[in-house]
Amino acid sequence: MTSTFPLSAEQRSMLHMDGLLGPGVLHNLVGSVELPTGATRHDVERALDRLGVRHPALTATLTGDVLGKNQMTGQRGIEVRPATGAPPDDLDSQLARLRHLRLDRSTQARAIAELAETERGGSLVLAVDHLVCDAAARELVLRDLAALLATGEFAADTRPHPEDYETYCQEQDRALSQEQVRRKEIDRWQRALDGCQPLTSLTPEGPDSGPGEASCWEITEAGPTLHDTFRVLARTTATSPFVVGAALYAVALWIRTGVRSSALITPVSTRRAPRHERLVTNLVNERLIPYHVVPEQDFTTLAQTIGRSFLLALRGSSLAIPDLVATVDGYREVLQAPGCAYVQLQVSVGEEEQAFPPAGERTWPWGAPYAPPTGITCTVFRVNTSPLGARLNTFHGGPVGQGAAVAALMRDVMRLARLAAFDPGTPISRLAAAPS
Fold it and tell me: How far is CA 300 from CA 289, 306, 434, 436, in A?
């Protein structure tokens, strides 16, 4: 049975960013499950068919009537094929390849599976288009798939039964079509982005043109120092670790670019209602976090101001990015001015004692080309702290040679964190000028 209905606001936002940044940045979400002893290809195909019926987002295709706005489920099943390329026991290489596999959104289901059989049994690797899957949905899908293969039944779950995928998209579309709702949110963003400028060059000392590349950088610090620093700053500024990270990067960006007022982008989960906890789709919408660096003010004041911006992004934002770009001048300028820098921030502060790489710096290629049709550079800063050590990880897509400046900006953040924790009342201008 097929059904046509609107894309969600989260999906329309992702399609917009996919067009802005080009293929290769918004990758698939991947994972693997071990095959039970004696499992056959027929067992795998039957499990995937049941998985697609249970979670119809996995079978969705974009329709040609209003491409990018409507979708249809039930036309395509989840394809299973033999693993190719790397040896069947090289799971890491298989996951990396499928992460960047480009699925045809008009003719293929939103998921594809590869079967790798080895002497020890084998594994089934699933790649799901980010358009219909976030990290929480990936775990739901993999858990159900493992249970189907092992027992023939879906994984037990005591949480409320999820809302129907089509119903979610239709009800959200009706709610966001109300003019009063749209006008209220548009007006809020116009006020919040007043005075904000695009970051026209994240790395002014690096080349601003030439062939593009996508790479990752990582700085790892052993021990609990930076973990404790973030906790202290969150407590003394009465904010959160995310807000602390945003304030540190805002100051570092001002030092590097000279732009005082701009906005960071951050993915915000819309998986809030109990009936959405088990819904398999992408329930993440990217949002701007405006900031205004006033050199005479102290770090605490900046953090608290950014904290209020973050609450706006969390509580008062539901429209799709293309709707905001079309109606809010500041949103359009910050996000997609020609040649601007798209800068996303993700911060996670865990108490678990997870294994971290050895202290030091390393870099590696992303594994997919970076060729945006707009000339925009893309930088994603990730901060992950744990009691065992801190890790600052960055993806950067842009002209070859900008990597050194990106790494230097990350070091600025670590330096500023220590200085601000020592005296959060110090004016930002003095923090910026202080030696390492």
Answer: 17, 10, 17, 20
